């Protein structure tokens, strides 16, 4: 209906000067007319020019005054000829106001009415008595508001006065003036958007008018890939290791044998960590096929009877326990393989690191998952001491932005001495544990074939904890796993460590 009205009017007239007046004349919604004008303008059937007009509309307070009258007039009318006390005046004023006005607003209107009535010199407000100074007043404010409501013209001074009292606000009205376009027709011809098989079969494609391509139109925004926050922090930590001269260890084996994961690290077979309540053991294949037999024998001997200055654990070491396959519980299993490979040739000092996934049979909560990422670094060289380890830790963690460190003695089966690492958290205003460290025991290193004067210092921490701190995440399940919000991955900022 609106389209026929616009095109039909232009067939006999040069222009629609004002879409608002046109909509009112035709009895059609102005929004509907505007939508049709935009559509016709896009197809060049008409040429449309913007029209903007400022108009004044009443605020909620202004509508209230237009309906019930201004508060100054209502207050004046509440004052009897003989005068009244302030307290009684306020009670009478509030009682005359409609019940749908809140008490708080009534109190505000009383203050406004008093101020305006005194300013207009309508009343005299003494210390105890309020009296009239004029016999009669007109509600000019109400009259002005009703005129604006009806779309009538109002003087500039009156507009300014009403604006100052926040009884009216400006509203921009938008419309169009419309003329015939270069492709004008009394009726829009439907154009085809696709060439179909039926068009070709019937042969009517020759007469069909097709919609022109708009080569300037913007298509759907392309969705690029996004890096997960863990990957961003992982890359930053990887760069720190590379800057310190470390080599990355291959960590592509999620499945590991108990031998490399536990036994090679001088961890006894009765240790609680080797229980099924803490470790995921594989059903198929349940055992490993091959292990280096000469090395296995040396590991067995040091577990049972000791050696290299150790008494061992004094128990019957079982090969079937060592053969069990599991999901690795730490990347130190990779470290044991790398050190064993290093011991096969002439000794060369090495610095290794790894950042990869490990698995533990833990109850899932806000800070624990059954799988997470472990960061591990180790240095293998002659003459290393605990002082070297502390110095390297200060260097490494200072690059992460953690300059305040302290260390606490701890126990690990395969390191002696061992230390827990704490950093002072400025936000929490307390010391927070951030990792573990130590020197690998001779019972672990020398069965591999490493020289007696070679020591290994090592440390490890999780990737999730620093990531959660950096990105302000307090639940690990919001960071890693199937419940992660994809919007988080798209919105998260660039990772900057140590800044």
Structure description:
The model has no long low-confidence stretch (mean pLDDT 87). 36% of the residues lie in helices and 21% in strands. The protein has 499 residues and is α+β, with helices and mostly antiparallel strands. A hairpin with a 4-residue loop joins strand 13 (415-425) and strand 14. The strands form four sheets. It has a seven-stranded mixed sheet, with helices on both faces. Strands 1-6-2 form a three-stranded antiparallel sheet, with helices on both faces. A three-stranded antiparallel sheet has the order 3-5-4. The longest helix has 17 residues, at 103-119. The protein contains 19 helices and 15 strands.
Which structural traits does this protein have?
36% helix; three-stranded antiparallel β-sheet; 15 strands; seven-stranded mixed β-sheet; elongated
